Amino acid sequence: MDVTAAAGQAGRGLPCILPGSTPVLLRGRQPDARVASVGINPSIREFLSRAGDELTGAHRRFETLSSLGIDLMTDATDSMLQRMRRRSLDYFEANPYMEWFAPMEALVHAVSGASYFDGSACHLDLVPWATRPLWGGLDAAARAHLLAAGRPLVAEQLTNPALDIIYLNGRTVCEAVGEFIPLTRRTARFREQGPRRSFFRGLHHRAIVVGCSSNLQEERLRSADREDFMAWVIDECTRDIAELRTHRPEHNPSAPGTPDVRSPP
Length: 265
Hints:
This protein is α/β, with parallel strands linked by helices. Helix content is 33%, strand content 14%. It has helices at residues 3-10, 65-68, 78-89, 98-112, 140-157, 171-177, 223-245, and strands spanning 27-28, 35-39, 121-125, 165-169, 184-189, 196-204, 207-212. Strand 5 and strand 6 (196-204) form a beta hairpin. The longest helix has 23 residues, at 223-245. The N and C termini lie far apart (45 Å).
């Protein structure tokens, strides 16, 4: 079954899915991308304006049930599924939601040299459905239900052999991915008296997996500190990537599983 169709089937009856929206399986040129960032779920801004109106014309980012002319995702034809996939593949060439992706692009490019805009990086989500209320407003049972439904889809995508680096954005993502990819965790402090953050890392097939407990888009910092904080996260992740490169199978074929390469906090 087409993975988009599978997401549509998996989403049937799930609570809190944004009415009229369609599942978003990826953004960017997977399976060719060598870097993947992973978030929680698509923003409602992928479908709606700030006024709550459906994005249309040149502003449209993804297909909706109304743009496809259907009532349910299970009614989607093969040609409709192809339209949905084309929107995902061409996402960064059309109208990407840069309020969210600008910091991700900066981090991805700094740690890997890849970019969403040349096809060398893509973005995936743990849960392929936008929700209303937003993720933070869902109760624990609804979040668990959505994560369980989305996990098989993102887990399959992360086995893509083209991937060299996987970046996990935020604690929810790091802990959820850690349920199917073995990760170690260390902590580090931003500035001498600053807050501690957790950094997660591991290997998945040949891909290096790194992540930070800070969700870059939601980190509450003074404007004057934001640039320094981003540079710090980049430095910490770059260090983890460099260490993990020496543990990858091509460097040490006899190493079983994911090594414990934790550093002291």
